[in-house]
Specification:
alpha+beta, Umud Fragment, subunit A, 7-stranded antiparallel β-sheet, 23% strand, 2 helices, single chain
Length: 171
């Protein structure tokens, strides 16, 4: 009886991992095509492709500066809840850069002005964060010694890890 319960539990976990993998694969592809973040229960993740946030964060900031190759965890939160020093992901109008990650430095009635933490960064007044362009707020950052910077398609790597776990659990 105990072996049957263990076997059914492993099968259920395997099925759930498989379904999560399919969700990431299908909806991740759709999100990338639409320059959006993949929404996994109100959260998402991404790889920081540039060093615009590598510098000195303002005092009292919840999120400190981070390097190129860092992995960010974001939460889909309300535009009206944003405040100065929050780090946000937003759609960019800059050619070749579909999404940007910058810190809010100025608050206005219907938009925010952002800036990277890097010393060479300037106020991003040409790419204002409006309700329409806002994606999510950064809530955590992991650097992992720059390992992630060697992967150009991080979502693909996560998918591969999930598939390996899936096959390992089937054995």
């Amino acid at each position: 009886m105990t072996k049957l319960i263990v076997k059914r539990s492993i099968q259920t976990i395997t099925l759930l991992i498989f379904l999560l993998t399919m969700y990431v694969l299908i909806f991740g592809t759709i999100a990338i095509r639409n320059n959006k973040l993949l929404n996994i229960f109100g959260y998402s993740y991404g790889l920081v492709p540039s060093d615009s946030m590598d510098g000195v964060a303002p005092e009292g900031s919840e999120i400190q500066s981070f390097k190129k190759g860092s992995i960010i965890i974001v939460k889909f939160s309300d535009f009206d809840d944003l405040k100065i020093n929050d780090v946000v992901v937003f759609q960019s109008e800059e050619e070749g850069i579909p999404l940007k990650v910058h810190r809010i430095v100025e608050e206005h009635s219907n938009y925010y002005v952002t800036k990277g933490d890097h010393e060479s960064s300037i106020l991003d007044t040409n790419d204002l964060v409006t309700r329409e362009k806002y994606q999510a707020k950064v809530i955590n950052v992991f650097y992992l010694f720059g390992i992630a910077s060697s992967f150009t398609n991080f979502r693909g790597i996560i998918l591969l890890v999930i598939i390996v776990i899936l096959f390992a659990s089937m054995l």
